[in-house]
Structures
1.
Amino acid sequence: MQRRNLIRLLQFVMALAVSAGAAFAAATPEQTTAPSHRAATPVHRKHTHRKTALAAQHKTSVSGRTTPASLTRSTVRRRRAIYREEWTSPTFANSTAGDRIDGDDLVVRRAAVEALGPYNGTVVAVEPNSGRILSIVNQHTALTSGFQPCSTVKIPVALAALSEGLIDRSTSSIPIYGRTRMGLTEALAHSNNYYFATLGTKLGYDKWSYYAHEFGLGEKAGLNIEGEESGYFAGEPPKNGGMGMMTSFGEGITVTPLEQAALLSAVSNGGTLYYLQYPQSQAELDAFVPRVKRKLDIGEYIPQIKPGMVGAVEYGTARSSELSDPSAPICGKTGTCTGGTTHLGWFGSFNDFGQNRVVLVVLLTGGRGVSGPTAAQITGNIYRNLQQQGYFNQRPAFSPAILVPR
């Protein structure tokens, strides 16, 4: 009996010691204090499954806070629960409320609404050879809000680096982590942050700013579209990571879904940046005439970025959008930002087959489950729906015979 009582006493003492240690760990100041900059920069981290040198410098937990090695599992669970309560944008919502659709291409709109489903997000569909907006699902979000571009910023960064001769078809590889080399195609397909942070550092702010504005960042993409606001481009490299973060995560930049769609339209059509126009009635459709904003000198570089955009869909970050048809390639780029109070999931793309070309930009906002791959999956469902209806084999409804430049 005495031996049994002694064993129970020892077990009690050990349990008490473990509980005290866990409580001490949970009370450590660096584990309980939220970062002071979180409210000012609610979206500033990209979630990635690859361990990169850049990510190592900004190691975060799911809440975007520094995670000490000694953080207990119970503390992580508690933080995740608190973090979910702090999300200011829901993952699911009615994204069609308040939309005006009198001038929309209803085939495209139905496909977009069906694919988006219950997600809180927006879909912008554009005819890239004229600048006509075919449909906008969730017009309020698409027109009045700018969002951090996350990894979609890598498309204009690649075009700027090619334009400056920092990389070309034969010498696009860059040492990654000092051990191996990676080329532009793989860097785009797998969205390698280190590669594009290196390009940004070589470009420098002035050159990057010049090309970014030339490509339409920080300005309205539309022509006389009621309620449209422009994105934002910082007047200097951001303090959070400098040029590396600016050109790999889009730190210090906000873009609208319309700005994304306008630039991707230029990539799709060979370099013409159109004013986006959104006809709201049959009369406006009948009077529609494309307007050229400016010609971008990127024609010779587009063939060098397309393989990486196709690679993203075939084997990279956007695999869920693939049509499983080698004769129907999709070019696209994902973007994911996590941290703070809102998660973002981008996917910008265009079909590189058929007579009808469509640019699709999907942006999701919310909390858990929001990511670039999720946006890519939604986009893939739109393409599949349209392909099944024979949409891409139809002749374009409008032939841009009259172009009126600015």
Note: The CA atoms of residues 174 and 181 lie 5 Å apart.
2.
Amino acid sequence: MADEEAAVLELGAVDSLPKGALAAKLQIARAEGRPLRVKLGIDPTAPDIHLGHAVVLGKLREFQDAGHRVVLIVGDYTALVGDPSGRSSLRPMLSKEEIEENAATFQEQALKVLDGDPERLEVRRNSEWLGMSLVELLGLVRTATVAQLLERDDFAKRFSANEPISMLELLYPLLQGYDSVAVKADVELGGTDQKFNLLLGRDIQRAYGQPEQAIMTMPILVGTDGRRKMSKSLGNQIGVTDAAQEMYGKTMSIPDEAMEEYYGLLLHETQPDQVQPRDAKRALARGIVAWLYSEAQAQTAEQEFDRVHIEHAAPETLSDARVRVGEDGTVHLPEAIAEAFGISRSEARRLIDQGGVTLGGAVLGKGEHDVPAARADGEVLKVGKRRFCRLHVG
């Protein structure tokens, strides 16, 4: 029975280690009359959870649906250090204010995928236990050796290339491993880039006299560029709280060769055969929006996409943007774009200069950053392919 349940839960995973450990954990938990405690840690280094995170969150939901308890750790303390996984240099440190602002949105966004029932979900912040004394920290540090940490692929590459590795970065895997001690994790999930950290968590649990967790790694979803890991910093992400129309449009922008991966990791389906790639991509976009919103909103998002990108019309519903008029009677469009869409003025100027902005259906030319107020008032401003608003002067 435990073997069968483990086999179902392991579907889609890259690794489930050690072999047979998940089935053993299930058998022990059943004998003790309790659910498994299944851990995932996410550092709030950006304000949004994206579909790359949703791959692992979807697997956690499977554990919940099987009757187990997910422990979602918001790494507000480890975010101060910065996870070096997959990095060739030290991550920049965020301020406590930035981390808190990001952390505040995480639980709400994770609930787009997870079941929020308190019997099935426990949300913790690792600042609860990582603000330890120096004596406690030294006790944690002694659980691993420098040689062991340098076995990590990213550390090993940097060490062989004589590139610097900070002591702060070496601490990160230890802190993440201690999270498993603090919450008494039976199982820990993560992306394939987290395999070393997850296995180290077993060593740290053993050093603290706890049973060692089973680990499961999930594939890493490529971003909308089809090449690199989905990441906010790379600008290739689809956020789980993006508007339905935005989510649909971004999905339609992924390369054809990435569709099979999106189908498998997000919808747990195979890409349909004997259909045109565009039709398969439309079905994929509908499926993702329906998963995170509803079938009705998926249909509306598709209709809106067709209206904008096939009929070349403005969306049926437009947000209004109030813009200021300068002393010379003009509207400074980079400022209006920055305020309407939350991008920087320099990015707005670049988009204008590259021909990526239209006003009233006319493409703005290079350097056309200021327009007469009368020309802007009441007109539709389009930035890129999917951002629209109606300008109102005054």
Note: The chain has a mean pLDDT of 89.
